[in-house]
Design goal:
By secondary structure, this protein is an alpha+beta fold. The protein is built from 2 helices and 2 strands; from the N terminus they run E-H-H-E. Helix content is 33%, strand content 9%. It is elongated and about 50 Å long. Strands 1-2 form a two-stranded parallel sheet. It starts with a strand and ends in a 12-residue tail after the last strand. It has one domain. The longest helix has 8 residues.
């Protein structure tokens, strides 16, 4: 499994993404790619 960095995701969403990034992702099986999420919440004030 490969965890994708947000820089990779934003690069492939560009109008003209870097060919190296695009081809690197194209060589991988989608099942082997993953994203992570972190949710931060500010505590509510009393």
């Amino acid at each position: 499994m490969i965890i994708l960095d947000t820089n990779v995701i934003s690069e492939v969403m560009r109008e003209m993404p870097d060919p190296d990034v695009s081809s690197g992702l194209a060589r991988r099986k989608p099942l082997h790619l993953a994203l992570t999420t972190i949710t931060c919440e500010k505590p509510a004030r009393p």
